[in-house]
């Protein structure tokens, strides 16, 4: 699944040439965004009538609420998450100063209470049922049984009678969705615990193991949405920091700096959905078909850039709090405008999920150790699991297949250019600078397909088909 980028160490180009590329890149981005902004304002009345734009936070602007994930988490942040996450941070600091040896226990109790306050007693009981069953199966130390149990648990999210019962527990659909998200993320943690126990049985007794499983599963900052940390990393880092005291000066500086960055990202995301109504436009095929070419390009760029900034916020807050607890969370997503390969996108956007897939699916299935066939199979099953975990809908299947194909093609090309014949031919006939330009040309095709696959993920197959037709069939 992992492969190094073709031409990872490339010679520097002339400064004038690099400057021209930067000007063209930034200029095309800003002009495309401007065209999308102008189209949004020209059709604001129709969008407001058809898709119900909201009154904006900025005077003279409407706000596009059509991105479900951003609206969902923004609403829950205002209702409860801001306060419960703040409470976690204060509890972590206080216990770290006064009772560092009891900090893990205190955070577990707080996580259970916070989850119960939002999901209710029945919601927490569902999670405890999943955890208890998986814990007992893990004690058998049979990886296949652990996988079967975990997949069965995840499949309960799609059983209509259970869905109906669980919906009846809550007053709003949003509360039910929060339970679904919690179970889905908890499923990854269950698999992590189970496989770690199968591979290297934990030395402590069953009660201690259960305690750490509960602490790992109900750790509040990462409870609802991640980022993903493996059970092994969580327990090792928590145990290492259990008796360490806090340095208030460094904690205060880190909190102020990271909070400032998160607020800046939040302001950027809000400005984007005030200035460009990209999510409402993508939901209406009539507007997609009538977008001018530059505005169409601006829509594609705006959708993927907003997705990136959104996850800087959604992962930034939990990562900040995890750092307070002396955990080492995965790196935040890398800017999608710097991504030029499928492999790089998977490796650097959600690093926590990438590490999880590598450790628990790709490597156990053989990875690259047994040749290209096993490598392709391991990669395909990893993408298949991601598709299933996200819901397994039709558009997710197309997205997973596109990413699998993209990674396979990139790996094949890497092997082709690494062969002695091709490598010697390139070295004889192309300068180092020209090799870099040729690599950039090849990656341009990969980037185009990567953007297309992201549009399928973010908007569905109809959005991907319209972009394919208008950009690659009809032409710009």
Layout of secondary structure:
Blueprint: H1 15-42, H2 44-51, E1 54-55, E2 62-63, H3 68-98, H4 103-138, H5 143-155, H6 160-167, H7 173-199, H8 206-217, H9 231-241, H10 248-275, H11 278-282, H12 285-290, H13 293-324, H14 342-348, H15 351-362, H16 372-390, H17 394-418, H18 420-429, H19 432-459, H20 461-473
Antiparallel strand pairs: 1-2
Structure summarized in a few sentences:
By secondary structure, the chain is an all-alpha fold. The protein has helices at 15-42, 44-51, 68-98, 103-138, 143-155, 160-167, 173-199, 206-217, 231-241, 248-275, 278-282, 285-290, 293-324, 342-348, 351-362, 372-390, 394-418, 420-429, 432-459, 461-473, and strands at residues 54-55, 62-63.
Major sheet strand order:
1-2
Q: Please estimate the helix content.
A: over 70%
Overall body shape: globular
SS element count, helices: 20
Oligomer: single chain
How far apart lie the N and C ends? 33 Å
Radius of gyration: 24 Å
Q: Quote the beta fraction.
A: under 5%
What is the averaged pLDDT score?
A: 89
Number of strands: 2
Largest sheet: 2 strands, antiparallel
Topology pattern, helix = H, strand = E: HHEEHHHHHHHHHHHHHHHHHH
Low-pLDDT runs of 5+ residues are 1-8
Structural class category: mainly alpha
